[in-house]
């Protein structure tokens, strides 16, 4: 009995175990089937994230849901190949690249740019930094950089440079004059100078002046004026001169140091002088011989005697000529008018006037030393010594025999001035053409 009972219990237990196994198997199959069906309904998406590629299966219906599912939150400047509303489909390729921040300085002022690009030109374009071909960019525009690279931009500006006589406008990014000259390959000579301090700032639209300086040696020849020596000569009439030895200029060689700035001479210093030819002095004899005239009257004629004496210092003075307006009335006859005209000698016509010893400013002493005030009866005429030599005996039409013993400032060429003791006679004489003869 007992054995039967145990057998029945064993049978029930077995059946119970089989049912459990069956249920478990069914559930497992159902789960596998469900999983297979679930997995089979997913879409495969190929994702490239920051350069790394991966395939992901998803039930997400949109790109936005997919990124959220993957815990990817794109930033404002990130790159996503599809919009968040784009529907997910089988074998879709999706790209996401996170933007990086780059530090940029423009003329010393800091700014930044967020971008997924990595070349300098693309980064500056993202930062809306406009460039010209003259601007200086570091690193180069085509260089690839990372977020740790500092990008520098120096904006170019226009500067006028005057190099000697040449002036031009250039674009520069230099901060100091020294850097500016180096940038434009301008070298300075030993004497050249820049009119601005080398460490001075170069500002936009400013001017940098370079003065080109040169020193030269110039050798020139100059004449040396000869000296004039005068010697007294008692054989020559007082007031006359004679060149005994003709002077000649000498020659000197002068060496100068010349400083030129931009081709223009600004300084000339005499460094050396050398006499090449000595000058020859001119020796001039000055006459000291004086003439004294005396008159002796006879019944029919008048004669003139001459004598010479030497004086240490003759107080001569030019006698001012007294002129009068010519009159139409004839000249009053004088005893001299009756003198017969001599023969021989040089004959010519001159313009004649008359003067007295008492005119304003007159000393009464002739150029040859004759005192007319103490000898009012003498017949003396003032002449141009180059026409009638001083001391000559002359005959004057209407005046008679006389001595050429005086000169006058207005007596030049064929002009003579007749001495008359009486002022009224001199005024009456006026001016007329007369014939003269030089007798010796």
Structure commentary:
It is rod-shaped and about 200 Å long. It has 440 residues and is α+β, with helices and mostly antiparallel strands. A hairpin with a 3-residue loop joins strand 22 and strand 23 (400-406). The model is unreliable at 293-337 (pLDDT under 50). The protein has a six-stranded mixed barrel. The chain has a four-stranded mixed sheet with strand order 2-1-4-3, with no helix packed on it. A four-stranded mixed sheet has the order 6-5-8-7, with helices on one face. The protein has helices spanning 2-40, 63-69, 120-126, 177-183, 423-429; strands spanning 43-49, 52-58, 79-80, 92-97, 100-106, 109-115, 136-138, 150-154, 157-163, 166-172, 193-194, 207-211, 213-224, 228-237, 241-245, 250-261, 264-277, 282-297, 302-310, 346-355, 380-382, 393-396, 400-406, 415-419, 432-438. It folds into five domains: 43-97, Beta-grasp domain (Ubiquitin-like (UB roll), Roll), CATH 3.10.20; 100-154, Ubiquitin-like (UB roll); 157-211, Roll (Ubiquitin-like (UB roll)); 215-285, Resuscitation-promoting factor rpfb (Resuscitation-promoting factor rpfb fold), CATH 2.20.230; 315-438, RlpA-like domain (Barwin-like endoglucanases, Beta Barrel). The protein has five helices and 25 strands.
Which CATH architecture of the largest domain?
Answer: Beta Barrel
| Backbone shape | rod-shaped
Q: List the total number of helices.
A: 5
First-residue to last-residue Cα separation:
214 Å
Query: What is the fold named in CATH at topology level of the largest domain?
Result: Barwin-like endoglucanases
Order of helices and strands: HEEHEEEEHEEEEHEEEEEEEEEEEEEEHE
Give the overall pLDDT as a whole number.
80
Report the biggest beta sheet as strand number plus sense, adding barrel if it closes: 6 strands, mixed, barrel
Task: Name the CATH superfamily classification of the largest domain.
Answer: RlpA-like domain
Q: Measured on Cα atoms, how large is the radius of gyration?
A: 65 Å
The number of strands is 25
Content-based structural category: alpha+beta
Beta-strand content estimate: 35-45%
User: Which percent range fits the helix content?
Assistant: 10-25%
Order of strands across the main sheet = 20-24-21-23-22-25
- Low-confidence runs of at least 5 consecutive residues: 293-337
As for the number of domains, it is 5
Q: Which CATH C-level class of the largest domain is it?
A: Mainly Beta
